[in-house]
UniProtKB/TrEMBL annotation:
Entry protein name: SMI1/KNR4 family protein
Cited InterPro entries: Knr4/Smi1-like_sf
UniProt xrefs under Pfam families: SUKH_6
SUPFAM superfamilies xref list: SMI1/KNR4-like (SSF160631)
Amino acid sequence: MWVQRLIDLTGWEPLGLSVDWETVEGELQVPLPADYKELFEAFGGGTFSESVYFFGPSGPHAFDFLAQWRASLAAGGSDDVQPIYSPGEKGVVVWAATEWADEYAWLVDAQNPGVCSVLVRGDVGEWRTYDMSTSEFLYRVLADEEFKPFGIAHHNLDPEFEPGRSLPGS
């Protein structure tokens, strides 16, 4: 339902990408949200409304969340509140970011597979939890003027999607 709303909002023609989710989830050792997989298969990685960078398990490095996750994990990345997800553990996997340095992530817990809370960190650095699906969260960011503080609809940006090439400055 929410994926279709994003397709309608952006006027996007779904790509119908084929992704080897078994391999991706095997590396992570947890299942990813079903609606995220549907969203990625429809759009691929890229930019919504010229400001929300949507990551996937493949594509240009700047839009490849697996490559970024591996690099963060190798660097021992974590913040004061949430560690980077490590297979078999609990932690954060980032699936999108904005030009304003917001990060959209899941809180993944290998002991509770299939449950991925949406976490968002703005420029203040604190993580906020949203009890909704990945695609609902993204739709609200793009289309709901009352979705604060992370919504962008009030900026009157075109709700379009541009397939990923690279991020500015990368």
